[in-house]
């Protein structure tokens, strides 16, 4: 029906008691907004943005790399020996991670879609899947390069109180306390007891 009259829209959308069409429309609109789907699209929503396509391409390359290197090893996922995956897919995974971090920074500034919210749910889910595979399943953790400086600075800070108290002890003048004993006649305990009885 090409008619744009409000009566026509009302009769079509709200003709049933449950208003199924309206409920479905609201559900899909809320899902679209909650998933930030517009952030994966171009400004005019004609298709995926270039950065999203690049990310999804790297995501597919990472999964392909994981799969190819798993075929070379035993497919027993309980063996926990994925050295080939970690070694051969490191560069691809790093590129994917860098692209995801770039998209996050781009999105904070408004992004290609012109929205300043979270990344769309497809990109976030793809990165979560890849990180879970990389760190939990394949156990491809890379040692942090900042470990030595952190240990050095922490040791220095922990050693400072020792240096402070040691220098304070060595450089301060220690005054010895001299106790002067009183020059009184000490009374016998028995004499004191006798005096207490009579008083």
Automatic annotation (TrEMBL):
Residues annotated as transmembrane: 148-170
Source taxon at top rank: Eukaryota
Pfam families per the UniProt record, alphabetical: OSTMP1 (PF09777)
Cleavable signal peptide: none
Keywords: Membrane, Transmembrane, Transmembrane helix
Cross-referenced InterPro entries: Osteopetrosis-assoc_TM_1
Gene Ontology CC terms, in alphabetical order: cytosol
Entry keyword annotation includes DNA repair: no
Keyword Zinc: no
Protein name per UniProt: OSTM1 protein
Taxonomic lineage: Eukaryota, Metazoa, Chordata, Craniata, Vertebrata
């Amino acid at each position: 029906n090409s008619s744009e009259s409000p009566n026509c829209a009302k009769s079509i959308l709200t003709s049933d008691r449950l208003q199924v069409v309206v409920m479905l429309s609201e559900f899909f609109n809320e899902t679209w907004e909650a998933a930030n789907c517009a952030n994966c699209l171009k400004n005019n929503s004609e298709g995926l943005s270039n950065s999203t396509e690049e990310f999804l391409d790297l995501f597919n390359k990472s999964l392909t790399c994981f799969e190819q290197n798993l075929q070379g090893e035993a497919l027993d996922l309980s063996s926990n020996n994925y050295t080939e995956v970690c070694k051969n897919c490191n560069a691809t995974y790093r590129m994917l991670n860098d692209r995801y971090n770039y998209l996050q920074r781009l999105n904070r500034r408004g992004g290609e879609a012109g929205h300043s919210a979270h990344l769309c749910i497809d990109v976030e889910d793809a990165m979560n899947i890849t990180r879970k595979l990389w760190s939990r399943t394949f156990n491809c953790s890379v040692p942090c390069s900042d470990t030595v400086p952190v240990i050095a600075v922490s040791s220095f800070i922990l050693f400072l109180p020792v240096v402070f108290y040691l220098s304070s002890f060595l450089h301060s003048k220690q005054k010895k306390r001299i106790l002067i004993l009183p020059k009184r006649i000490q009374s016998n305990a028995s004499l004191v007891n006798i005096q207490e009885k009579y008083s």
